[in-house]
Design brief:
Layout (H helix, E strand, L loop, with lengths): L1 H10 L15 H10 L28 E5 L2 E4 L6 E6 L5 E6 L3 E6 L4 E7 L5 E6 L5 E6 L3 E6 L11 E7 L5 E6 L7 E6 L4 E5 L4 E6 L7 E6 L5 E6 L3 E6 L5 E6 L5 E7 L2 E6 L4 E5 L4 E6 L6 E6 L6 E6 L4 E5 L5 E5 L6 E6 L5 E6 L4 E5 L2 H8 L7 E6 L5 E6 L3 E6 L4 E7 L5 E6 L5 E6 L4 E5 L4 E6 L6 E6 L5 E6 L4 E5 L7 E6 L6 E6 L6 E6 L3 E6 L4 E7 L5 E6 L4 E6 L3 E6 L4 E7 L7 E4 L5 E5 L4 E6 L5 E6 L5 E6 L5 E6 L4 E5 L26 E2 L18 H5 L3 H10 L12
Antiparallel strand pairs: 1-2, 2-29, 3-4, 4-5, 5-6, 7-8, 8-9, 9-10, 11-12, 12-13, 13-14, 15-16, 16-17, 17-18, 19-20, 20-21, 21-22, 23-24, 24-25, 25-26, 27-28, 28-29, 30-31, 31-32, 32-33, 34-35, 35-36, 36-37, 38-39, 39-40, 40-41, 42-43, 43-44, 44-45, 46-47, 47-48, 48-49, 50-51, 51-52, 52-53, ...
Amino acid sequence: MAEQETKEEVRGEDIVWDKGPITSSNINDFKELQKKCFRSPKDAVMDADVIPSFVSHVTKNLGTSQLFQDGQWTYTHHTYEVYGSVNSRCGYYIISASRDMHINIVHQYQMKLVKRWKAHTSTIMRCRLSKDDKYLFTCSFDQTAKVWELDKSNDYSNTPKEIQCLKGHSGWVYDVGLNPDEGTHELVTCSVDKSVKLWNWKEGTEIRTYDKGHADCIRRCIFSEDGTKIISAGQDARIVVWDKYNASIIYKLEGHTTYVLSLASKGSILVSGSTDKTIRVWDLEEGEQKRVLHFHSKNVESVEFVTGSNDKVISASLDKSIRIFDINTGLQEYVIEGHTGGVYDAQFSPDRRFVVSCSADKSVKLTKIEVDKMEQNRKGFHTGIIWGVSFSPDAKWYATSGSDQLIKIWEYYTYNVKQTLKGHTAHVTTVFFLPDNKHVVSTSYDNTTRIWEYAAEKEIAKMEDHGKVVWFSDCRHDQKYLATAGGSFNIIVYDISTLSAPTVAKTLKGHTYDVLTCKWHPDQDHIVISGSSDSTIRVWNINTESQLQSIAGHGSIIYHVVFLVGGLIATSSMDTTIRIWDWLHGRCEKVLRGHTHPIPALVCTPDRKRIISGSQDSTVKIWQAETGMLEFSFRAHIAWVRNLAVDPNTDRFLSVSDDGSVRVWKVSLINQKYYPFLGEDITAKTKQIEEIVEADPMNMTNSLYKTDYSIIHDLANAGNVKALRVCFQNSAGLPNGQIPLR
């Protein structure tokens, strides 16, 4: 209890440093202040292992450098945009380059500017550091690249010595890259003059020019990992792979549609980023594109392999975010935010414990991240798109199904995988719990519906009567009948009185294309309502196997049907609308507009008074069922929202996405005075609630979620400390509104 009280006290306190720059006389006071920001009692100034636990708002600056906020260190010594940053191998210093023509060296723990000097006569675009921290390499719009010898004897405080100024380009120099074999003393530069140059930086001599491959400015140049190739990328949307020794072109890689801004190479793999907002993965041996990744919404300014990894890449974008992803699975594993301007560069520290980033907001940020634990926590999760999600009737468990052909049973509140069900041979489209709370039913692209005893991880029945993909299934509340919808254009109703031996009881025929959804009426046992790719809704009497209504109105595929109060249903469609119907009379009562893309996910709250929708536009929207009013809208994922599930006992709900994550949301944390949008059309102006609690183990080790309780990003980022406190105090269901994550 004492530990719990301490956490609550820290969460509600504004932590202020008001004693000016750190000196020997106040360093102990500073250490004590930092301990309040951290769960660990260790020395936060010099110990890099401490982990930020809570949102700590610092209301005064340390000289020109800000303290911790939202788990990040922020350094604001530059006066213009910062284009390049790098962490020293020793792990104590950050070096950055800016449009202000200066290089800064900062002690990352003491928050102290160690050295600042004017290194060029124009914008500095990039800085690189040798592996021994002895030499710094910079390039500039002054048409030069420079080599600096750093003096480490006095904590870098002595002015670095310029040992080479490499001149030869006739235009701005955008990038400088080092040969991984630094014993060769080779570096490459690229320029607006459409050329790449190879230099011996030790001697200050130009070795070779590569100028027959690009039709426009060259923005990035690197060596292959083995040092035998040079790779360049330009504003002509082209990537050129050169033979280093004879300047011949090995490959021209084409796929990006606009400027290529960033490159990273590891073994035979090349990763690129572009103003077309995509990241592309290439095979250097075959000269072929292997994968296109859509994580960012603006220019991808930087891509780098995570230190020591062959498959994890970190990217930075003008959308203000930094993302870490796996190039083999195509799944995003981590998102870092905090910059208020576009991010130009981001890379891991050599020890893999930090990400160093720089931005148009004139700042450099240092973010704590533990990749090794992130990789460990990712074990057991889906390795592809998550298609289905549902809660158990007692809300102690939830189930997910995915393109990896697996079904996973999770313990709610701890988010630990308890069972993995294997047997399907293709995407598992849906999964749901039977009323007995002991079994789940799944449907799949492998043309089967299966029943599982999930605690024993045992398949007890398999039905193959559709002969084509099975899209959906729903069980009647008495667990006697199971309705399935599929590519056969029919609804097949099974008698599952004996779970291990289901039999076909009814076949409902009438749809002219795939039936994508079918739902039992919650109160009338003989009524089933279905939706189809033929754009119709049909109402069925299973007792007579007859169609009672065929309802048209949607302009495209119908994905989902949910029952509301007062004899109404809601449907979602590829036509980007939700429609509310009087199903008995076949009359459309309301059309809900707001999504900009198809809506494959639709549920209602347990009281049937709210509709929750998820769309390919990556947003979740909450609507009043009675009035059709949009209450809340927020970007829930970075890809399609594939499905939703509502906790039957609380106001929480789950969302799953093509980004491979499961997220849990609490409606009461999205409402009332902190988001006063009731009665307004807030589609365009609503605040994003980017994460309330993320149940994705891939991201669990983010410092903001590693603690016992979640942090509400939107309020924190807005600096609304009072709202943050009250929101925690007023949230129902748990003490002080805390939502346990682990």
